[in-house]
Write a structure and sequence with these properties.
Among the domains are: 153 residues; 128 residues, Jelly Rolls (Sandwich), CATH 2.60.120. It is elongated, with a radius of gyration of 26 Å. It has two helices and 25 strands. A hairpin with a 2-residue loop joins strand 24 and strand 25. It has a 17-stranded mixed β-sheet that branches. It has a four-stranded antiparallel β-sheet with strand order 18-23-20-21, with no helix packed on it. The longest helix has 22 residues. The chain is mainly beta. One of its GO terms (biological process) is defense response. This is TIR domain-containing protein. Keywords: Leucine-rich repeat, Repeat. It comes from Phaseolus angularis (Azuki bean).
Length: 414
C-alpha cells in the first residue's frame, strides 16, 4: 500500500457497520494517502509511522480508535475529519498545524471528556452526542457552525460569543447548562450574523432576542421552565418550542400571530421573500377563540373573501401528541371547486408529549389562480382541505390577512 492515494471501505448504514479484521495489526499506510475513508476501523490507532502530511480527508466512522496518532503532525492539506460514532475515542490530536482544516465531526464520540481544536481555519465543529464532554475550546475566527447538543457542558466559553462569523449554535439536550441569557449574544460580535440557535437550557432568558437581526431558526424544545416567549425578530421563520410544558398556550398563540402580522409578513413583503418554511410550533389544545373560521373536520369553506389587499392566510393547526418524525401535512385550497393553491410541510418533530399548535403562513402570491378568478370584488367559496396528511390533526383554523394603512390585520375576529 506504499503508493495508495485513495482508500475507501464504506458502509451504507451508520448503524450496521461491517468489520475488516486485522489479526496481525496494520504495519503501514501510504505516506502519499490523500483520502482515507475506513468505516468500522478495528484498531485503537493508526500505524505509528503514518504520515498525514498529504492527507486531505480523513473519515473513520464507527471505528474502535482511541486516538489517531501521537504528537503533532504537519497537516498542511487536511480539510475534513469525520470520526462519527467512534465511541472509544478518548482524545484528538493537536491540530494547530492544520491550516486548511474546515470541518471536524466527532458526533457520538461518547468517551471524549475534552476537545480543544486550535486550527485557525475551522468552520464547522460538530460535537453532537458527545455525552461525556465537559470542556471544549475552539480558537478559529472562521467558525460558522457549532453543535454542542447532548453534551455535558455546564457553560459556554465567553470567546464563543465573539465569533463574528458564527451563524448556527446548537445547545439542545445540554442538561447541565443551567441558564442561557441574551446578554453575551447581544453584546457579542455575532449579533448580526447568527441565523440558527437551539437550546433547552433549564432557563432561557432572552428578552432582547429581537435584536438578533439575522436569526432565522430558534429551537427551544423541552425548556420545561419557559413560561413565556420574548418578542421575536422579524427575520425568524421557524420556532420550535416542543414540550415546553410551562408555556401559556393562549398567550403564545397571540404572540406568534402578532409576530407574523406586525413583523414577519411585512419583512417578507419588504424583502420580496417567499414563505416556504414559515413554521411556529408550541404546546396547545385549541385554536384561540378569536378565530371564526375553525373546525374539527378535515375541511372548511369561507363563503366569500374581499379581494382588495388580501395578503394571504395564517393557518393554526392542532397536532395530536406522538411522534411526527418524517410526517407530512398537506392542505389544498379550492375556489368554486377549482384547486388554486397547495401547501405542504414535512415535519421533523420526534416526540410531542401533548397536543401542539402549528402556525404557518400561506402568501396569496403562492396561489395559482385565486388572484385572477372571482366574482366582482370578492372570492367565493374558498375551501381549505387537509388531505393525505400523515400527521393527526385535531382541529385547525384559518385567519385571512389583509393590509391597511395602519398595518396588517386578521379577519374573522369575534
Amino acid at each position: 500500500m506504499t503508493n495508495v492515494r485513495f482508500f475507501k471501505i464504506h458502509s451504507w448504514s451508520k448503524f450496521n457497520i461491517f468489520n475488516v479484521y486485522l489479526p496481525n495489526g496494520l504495519n503501514t499506510l501510504s505516506h502519499k494517502m490523500r483520502y482515507l475513508h475506513w468505516d468500522g476501523f478495528c484498531l485503537e490507532s493508526l500505524p505509528a509511522n503514518f504520515s498525514a502530511e498529504k492527507l486531505v480527508e480523513l473519515c473513520m466512522r464507527c471505528s474502535k480508535l482511541k486516538k489517531l496518532w501521537d504528537g503533532v503532525q504537519n497537516l498542511v492539506n487536511l480539510k475534513t475529519i469525520d470520526l462519527w460514532g467512534s465511541r472509544d475515542l478518548i482524545e484528538i490530536p493537536d491540530l494547530s498545524l492544520a491550516e486548511k482544516l474546515e470541518n471536524v465531526s466527532l458526533c457520538y464520540c461518547e468517551s471524549l471528556h475534552e476537545v480543544h481544536v486550535h486550527s485557525k481555519s475551522l468552520r464547522v465543529l460538530n460535537l453532537y452526542g458527545c455525552s461525556s464532554l465537559r470542556k471544549f475550546s475552539v480558537t478559529s475566527e472562521e467558525l460558522t457552525r457549532l453543535s454542542l447538543a447532548f453534551t455535558s457542558i455546564c457553560s459556554i466559553p465567553s470567546s464563543i460569543w465573539h465569533k463574528r462569523k458564527l451563524k448556527a449554535l446548537y445547545l439542545t439536550g445540554c442538561r447541565n447548562l443551567g441558564e442561557l441569557t441574551d446578554e453575551p449574544i447581544i453584546h457579542g460580535s455575532h449579533k448580526h450574523s447568527l441565523t440558527e440557535l437551539a437550546s433547552n437550557a433549564e432557563r432561557f432568558s432572552m428578552k432582547n432576542i429581537k435584536s438578533l437581526s439575522t436569526l432565522r431558526m430558534l429551537w427551544l424544545d423541552d425548556c420545561k421552565k419557559l413560561v413565556s416567549l420574548p418578542k421575536l425578530p422579524p427575520s425568524l421563520e421557524k420556532l420550535s418550542a416542543c414540550n415546553c410544558t410551562s408555556l401559556d398556550s393562549y398567550m403564545t398563540q397571540r404572540l406568534v400571530l402578532q409576530h407574523m402580522l406586525q413583523s414577519r409578513i411585512p419583512y417578507l413583503r419588504k424583502n420580496d421573500l417567499r414563505c416556504y418554511d414559515e413554521e411556529y410550533l408550541f404546546p396547545g389544545n385549541h385554536v384561540i377563540d378569536e378565530c371564526v373560521f375553525n373546525t374539527t373536520e378535515t375541511s372548511i369553506t369561507i363563503p366569500y373573501l374581499w379581494k382588495t389587499e388580501l395578503y394571504g392566510f395564517i393557518y393554526c393547526i392542532i397536532l395530536s401528541k406522538g411522534s411526527l418524525l418524517q410526517s407530512g401535512i398537506s392542505c389544498s385550497v379550492y375556489q368554486d371547486g377549482i384547486r388554486v393553491g397547495w401547501l405542504q410541510r414535512l415535519l421533523e418533530y420526534e416526540s410531542l408529549t401533548s397536543n401542539h399548535v402549528l402556525c404557518m403562513y400561506h402568501d396569496i402570491n403562492e396561489f395559482d389562480a385565486i388572484t385572477e378568478e372571482g366574482h366582482g370584488h370578492f372570492f367565493s367559496n374558498v375551501t381549505f382541505i387537509f388531505e393525505n396528511s400523515e400527521a393527526s390533526i385535531e382541529e385547525f383554523g384559518i385567519f385571512p390577512i389583509y393590509g391597511s394603512e395602519s398595518g396588517l390585520k386578521l379577519v374573522g375576529r369575534r
